[in-house]
Write a structure and sequence with these properties.
The chain has about 550 residues and is an alpha/beta fold. The protein contains twelve helices and 29 strands. Strand 1, helix 2 and strand 2 form a beta-alpha-beta unit. The radius of gyration is 31 Å and the shape is elongated. The protein starts with 14 loop residues before the first helix and ends in a 10-residue tail after the last strand.
């Protein structure tokens, strides 16, 4: 259930909720709805997991039930406590609190008991084929599989061999336990799947108690049943596994009612790769700074980038829940971020690639304070004082010595408005010996001060500024997509996904705390980087720019 009303969004009905409504009407599970979010702790969660988190937790919330956080820790070789900590931080940050924190490994005894029961029922056997041989025996999508030569061993022999597997007599891969189902099934998952394998690895939770571990397809239904899960919500890649899910529970017959698995389409996002393996490879080889690199689609990366939980939850609700796979335009996610931030954050003047401007007719030594609104759209956010003097900095993008057509910002002979200040005219470009611009000499019209009621001539361009003597140097990191499409339509790494530059900010930025968000006037929304910002060093990540070509469908 949500821990913070500020993170709530409307929960629309979807086909999963329609199934639940039918179950509630029929009294299948009484009046309760229990869901679970079951991540494997082998990496950081990404935006695709956010969709599953939101769906599972909000579904439970909608029906006044609860959702468990359960770690699928059946593979000790790939799991790490670091990932556990990150998962819990992500779930809480999104605004959810689980009812119970559980581990698949807590049920290893019960899973072993279930495996023994299947052997006794003649529904499981120990197989000594190698992994390659098992693969060959399975057949193909068009050809039936072939029965293992070990398939018809006696129950007594299988019990003995399985006990020896448990005692550590055999090496990894030497033997497996397989369910005995149907080697001619059109569903490959039903062709005597492996349900236990040998792995001589120490486990974070059970230590060295076990050297055999259940496969996910066997563990998953048992975990759900033990916990009393009513609706086990999975992504579409598990649809073909559902017959095995049901087979395990039906064959054991230990639980009534049994949980119901329901599948939905996973999230695919343009310019985004969501393979944990691929993301981990980029972390390991140094392509990115870490799992929380602001370019990463991980929830940790989005959090550090400055995305808000409200925006992500809004996005997940907007894209809805469907059976058919599709790709969502990342522009919708960025739209949700802008929509959330535009009424919350204050504006600040920041100039990138600064150019110094000397206002030659302004009194030397004088600094005046101008009043500027913090957010033009939200008067309740108040106003602030911004200094102005003879020497200021403007943004490098706001001056052209040889302007292109329809360029209305500053250039020699042109007049523009300084936001919140005066009209200035560029009179002279002063250059260094190497031909680069040293400074611009301009004049101002004192009658044109903002708020003075001046109704004289009009200017087409308005630019912003930072007063030179109080300017605060900051580092700005502007991000592009980590992945882009090449000429063949294949996603490839974007070599220009990060641009870092020095900038000057108005003096109020000195008080910015790590994690604080602002709108940098005309540049975009930014956040003080959580890792790199302190009292002496201000580093800002661009969350999202101000404009987008994305249009909401009508």
């Amino acid at each position: 259930m949500s821990k913070d009303d500020n993170t709530k969004v409307a929960i629309a009905n979807n086909f999963i909720h329609n199934i639940i409504n039918d179950d509630l009407e029929q009294g299948t599970y009484g009046e309760k709805v229990v869901t679970r979010f079951p991540p494997e702790p082998n990496g950081y969660l990404h935006i695709g997991h956010a969709k599953s988190i939101c769906l599972n937790f909000t579904t439970a919330e909608k029906y006044k039930g609860y959702c468990n956080l359960r770690y699928d820790d059946t593979n000790p070789a790939k799991e790490d406590v670091e990932y556990v900590d990150s998962i819990e931080e992500d779930v809480k940050w999104l605004g959810f609190q689980w009812e119970n924190r559980l581990w698949a490994s807590d049920y290893f005894d019960k899973m072993y008991e279930a495996a023994v029961e299947l052997i006794k029922l003649g529904k499981a056997y120990v197989c000594s084929l190698s992994a390659d041989e098992i693969r060959k025996y399975r057949g193909t999508l068009t050809e039936p599989g072939k029965e293992s030569p070990y398939r018809n061993q006696s129950v007594e022999e299988n019990l003995k061999l399985f006990e020896e597997m448990k005692e550590g007599i055999y090496k990894d891969g030497e033997k497996v336990l397989r369910a005995k189902i149907d080697m001619t099934s059109p569903n490959m998952n039903m062709r005597d799947p492996v349900i236990y394998r040998i792995a001589h690895s120490s486990h974070h939770n059970t230590g060295d108690k076990w050297c055999i571990y259940p496969m996910y397809d066997f563990a998953h239904p048992i975990e759900d049943a033990i916990e009393g899960i009513t609706h086990s919500i999975c992504t579409m890649e598990f649809e073909d596994h559902r017959p095995l899910y049901d087979w395990v529970l039906d064959t054991l017959g230990w639980w009534n009612p049994q949980p119901k698995q329901i599948e939905f389409a996973r999230l695919n996002l343009t310019n985004t790769v969501m393979s944990k393996r691929y993301l981990k490879a980029m972390v390991d080889d140094g392509t990115v700074e870490g799992w929380d690199d602001p370019r990463m689609p991980t929830i940790a990366g989005l959090r550090r980038r400055g995305y808000t939980p409200q925006a992500i939850r809004d996005f997940c609700e907007r894209i809805g829940v469907a059976k058919a796979n599709s790709t969502v335009d990342i522009g919708l996610l960025e739209f949700c971020v802008r929509e959330d931030l535009k009424a919350k954050v204050e504006s600040r003047n920041v100039v990138e690639n600064p150019i110094k401007v000397v206002i030659t007719n302004y009194p030397e030594g004088q600094i005046e304070e101008l009043t500027i609104e913090n957010n033009r759209e939200v008067p309740e956010l108040g106003e602030r004082k911004v200094p102005f003097s003879r020497e200021i900095y403007i943004d490098g993008a706001d001056f052209m010595e040889n302007p292109v057509k329809k360029y209305f910002r500053l250039f020699p002979g042109n007049e523009v408005r300084l936001k919140g200040a005066y009209f200035i005219t560029c009179n002279e470009v002063i250059k260094n010996e190497d031909g680069t611009i040293k400074e611009l000499h301009c004049t101002y019209d004192p009658q044109t001060r903002s708020g003075s009621g001046f109704e004289g001539r009009k200017v087409k361009g308005t630019i912003h500024f930072v007063e030179a003597s109080t300017a605060v140097p900051i580092t700005v990191r502007n991000y592009d997509y980590l992945m882009v499409d090449d000429e063949n339509g294949e996603m490839v790494l974007n070599e220009n996904s990060k641009n870092e530059c020095m900038a000057y900010a108005e003096p109020s930025i000195k008080d910015a705390k790590a994690g604080e968000r602002f709108q940098f006037f005309r540049h975009g929304y930014y956040i003080a980087d959580a890792k790199l910002t302190d009292n002496n060093n201000k580093v800002f990540n661009r969350i999202v720019d101000l404009k987008s070509s994305f249009k909401l469908p009508k």
